[in-house]
């Protein structure tokens, strides 16, 4: 996919590791497509670490790292969408060569869309496909109740009900006290941000939905068809908001097949 591929240190090949402030990658020099993944609210690039071994060999994994988590823990969470998008567009340049697509989960879907559209407005390159996962359309978010407006205890309960934390983490109050402010900052960022339908994205959009997701049920994602001038499809999976982490749901396999068949 690239003319000059940097040599990967022994032991790191195939592992998702940092390459710059916003980019982690599991290098596969022989891959013919690349999927760039955007994490959920409060999540980091390593939310996609397991995808490195679950994607087809022909697909290389890259993931976006956001400020305020993991190797960027010392930074404050993003507070301006425009500045964040500019930063990510610049840092993703090494992986925007050859065919690539974007995958975003929850709030990460909104960021993936805005980055894709920023690339399009600059004349490209643009993703071959955008996967939006567990995310209602922007107008549904804007019209509905905002999680970030809830009192602290209720916000905490709502976040836990989404299922994004494993039992060990959610039971550790000290860990949760450190994580919840980052999650809250992400919800504030995206629940306050206006995403417009124009200009429409020229890439096809596929919306992935958990059948029992109270946060983003199927009827609230169909409007993503208005955000693209290309094809729009939906795919249902058993489970809730974090259906992609549930046993039996091979989301990387589905993504890989969709890209390779196209």
UniProtKB/TrEMBL annotation:
Per the record, the domain of life is Bacteria
The processes (GO biological process) annotated in the record are: lipid biosynthetic process
InterPro entries for this protein = AB_hydrolase_fold, TEII, Thioesterase
Boundaries of every Thioesterase domain copy: 34-248
The entry sums up its family as follows: Belongs to the thioesterase family.
Protein name per Swiss-Prot or TrEMBL: Thioesterase
